[in-house]
Each structure stands twice: as C-alpha cells, then as structure tokens.
Amino acid sequence: LHVRSRRQRQMCIRDSIWGVLMGVAIGGGFVLATAATVLATSNSTPSMTMAVVLGGWLVKMVVLILLFVWLRGFDFYDNTAFAVTTLAALVVALTAEAWGVITSRTAYLS
Question: Which of 17, 75, 86, 109 could staple 23 via S-S, CB 3.0–4.6 A?
C-alpha cells in the first residue's frame, strides 16, 4: 500500500476491491455456465454431456482471453488482485468440476 497519503491508500484499496470482485465474478460465471450446460444436457448420453462441458470450457477460455484483452486498457482495478483472484477462482471451479466427474457413480452400459 502507499504510505504517502491517505487518498493514495484509499484508491489502492478501491482498485484492489474492484480486481477481487471481477475475479470472483469470472469464477462464479464459470461455475454457473457449467451448471447450466450440465442441466441442459441432463437427458442426453454421458458422452454428449462431456462433449458439451468440454466445449463450454473452450468457449469460456476464449471469452476469458477476450475479456483480458479488453480490460487491459482500463486502470480502475488492481491487476495483481484481479489475476490472483481469477486464477484462484478458476482453479477452485476446475477442481470442483473434476471432483464431481471423478466421484459420480454412473453406470456405463452398452
């Protein structure tokens, strides 16, 4: 944090809060999008659900890269807080989804 003035510290804290909120929103958006795709494909075959979920991750990664490129020109948020929170949220989301797939008890019959 800045030690020179109270105003600089307040702006630094505000920018960090914006970065954290945007990172949490991205992570939450990823989880909600995955839940929506699983619900939309709940009556289809497991392989179709997996294909849609993996395709959804590809689309989300492209959207995330485009969002990063677009946000690069703004200075209302702290880049470090945004990056750390976004990475943490995405790791948690991916871990939760992988755990859900690994621990699901689905019978695969031909």
Answer: 86
Task: Collect contacts of 50-57 with beta carbons under 8 A, ≥24 apart.
Answer: 50/101, 53/97
Output the pLDDT for position 106: 64
Q: Is the CB of residue 1 less than 8 Å from the CB of residue 9?
A: yes
pTM score: 0.69
pLDDT in tens, 13-32: 777 888 889 888 988 888 88
Q: Which two tokens stand for residue 27?
A: 């992570």
- Cβ partners under 8 Å of residue 68, min gap 6: none
How is residue 70 written in tokens? 């677009």
Residue of 80, 88, 70, 86 lying closest to 16 (CA atoms): 80
Q: In which residue are the tokens 């990475």 written?
A: 87
Residue 24: CB partners within 8 Å, gap ≥ 6?
A: 85, 89
